[in-house]
Amino acid sequence: MSLSGALSNALSGLTTQARQATLVSSNISNATTESYGRRTLDVSSRSTTWGGVSVDGVTRNTDAVVLADRRLSDAQLGYADDMQTFASKIEMLVGESGEAGSLTTLYSNFENALLSASSDPSSNQRLKSVALAAEDFTEKLNQVSGALQDARTDADKSIASDIKSLNDSLASVKQLNDSIGESVLRGADASSLMDERQRVLDTISEIVPLRTVARDNGTLAVYAASGTVLLDPSFSGQPAQIGFTPQEPITADRTLADGGLSGITINGHAINSTNEGPLGGGTLGAQLQIRDVVAVDMQAALDGIARDLVDRFGPGGADTTLAAGDAGLFTDAGLAFDPLLEVGLAARISLNSLVDPGGTGTWRLRDGLGAATQGNVGDATLIQGYSDALDGLSVPSSTSLGTGTSSFAGHVSDFVSAISAARVRADGEQSFSSAQHTALKELELSKGVDTDAELQDLLLIEQHYAANARVMTTVDELMQTLLSI
What are the residue boundaries of the Flagellar hook-associated protein FlgK helical domain, all occurrences included (predicted)? Predict the structure, then answer.
């Protein structure tokens, strides 16, 4: 080999090792950076007369299978987290059985107040205690109903926010695809652009479960796990436009099924806007589930409880002073209840103002709401009748409570138990999803940058660099010797 050939070989080696050192340094400094892909240098022997090493490019190393599974777990965990947060919030508001201020405790207080008043119906204080306990119970129904509608309103806002983020992120992925494609065609290193694209896709994966497919020149096609195309450079190359119209505030009578709330569209076409639809499975699906299914079902059960309470104390019951069409002890916002307006009743139910505990009419709890004057102060017939009405087994008028016979306490207990069971299920799903996500995240990181291995490579690079430098020094000495002859 000639001296010039040896010099060329050594120079190419120095250049390659310097580039290798830069990549290793980048790998070590970004070992904990999210979405960073480990870089390796692609080299080959030069086929020219001079020989040496040629740098062919930079490879960004990721495990596509682990990455795909981790993104699906992102969506699953996002769904589980949102559902658990909602279930815990409602359970906390309803309260555990026996807890001060809980729905069951307030109902027990009402029952006990009736029993106490029936033992001494002449006591105005005991009659007032009945009115206060009844008012506390109805206010609790109002409060829980309001919280359910607030949760639906918040879910609607979250849907709008998720869809905006989804549209913005897909537009960013499209731009990054274009930049990556141009870089690859120019032979430039597109690794940093790919890191950014992975980061953007990771923000989408929590909203909607994703699958990606490699296309030409380093670009990616993006699909929802359902197979719905979100972006594909092989087709139009334009991201799908997800449409949604938020609604505020949301009331119990507004539902997706009745057309009172907006569904989701893709490129102007309506899709199945539930968690079972094309975009379900992530935080977007969770908010749809809360807004249109879970909270709606809870509201229906709560309205059924309110209706059953109104029916048990209405005309045809224990209070014989009431005529058909009169408002009973419990009213619909102060008026007689209309059976056709059950939806949202829990938010409107209230104690009849005739027995307002702040007034002087609590004697009507003993003598009847329609009584013109006070009767025998020792007569506990009506108060006992109220207690019997609560304990009586009857088929509820509301279909949301089922078709079996039950006491009013049974309906309250079933509702509280259902809320608690929903929270327990949500806890279990969140625990499983979190464990799975952690395992996949650790597996992904284990296939990323190993700083120990990178430091070992750096030592080898240093040795190779020194060897090439020594060759160049030797060639220089030989050339100086030849020139001095």
Answer: 88-313
pLDDT digit string, tens, across residues 463-474: 877 777 787 788
Residue 445 is classified by DSSP as H
Read off the pLDDT of residues 418-452 as tens digits, 9 standing for 90 and up: 999 999 999 999 999 999 999 998 888 878 777 77
Tally DSSP H helices, then E strands, for the chain: 12, 10
Q: Are residues 104 and 31 in the same domain?
A: no
Tell me the residue type at 194.
Answer: M
Q: Are 425 and 368 in contact (CB under 8 A)?
A: no
What pLDDT was estimated at residue 476?
72
The answer to whether 86 touches 419, Cβ cutoff 8 Å, is: no
115 and 155 assigned to the same domain: yes
Write the CB contacts of 431 (distance below 8 Å, at least 6 apart in sequence): none
CA atoms within 13 A on the CB side of 331: 16
Kind plus residue range of the DSSP H or E element containing 125 = helix 124-186
211 phi/psi in degrees, rounded to 5: -130, 140
Confidence at residue 50, expressed as pLDDT on a 0 to 100 scale: 59
pTM over 0.85: yes
153: amino acid identity, one letter: T
341 and 414 in a single domain? The answer is yes
Q: For 36, which DSSP code?
A: -
What is the rounded CA–CA span in Å between residue 178 and residue 228?
A: 21
Domain residue limits at 81: 68-437
pLDDT in tens, 349-365: 999 999 999 999 999 99
User: What is the model's pLDDT at position 1?
Assistant: 58
In a domain, 443, yes or no: no
Residue 47 lies in a domain: yes
442 inside domain: no
List of residues 6+ apart from 303 with CB closer than 8 A:
145, 252, 342, 343, 344, 345, 346, 398, 400
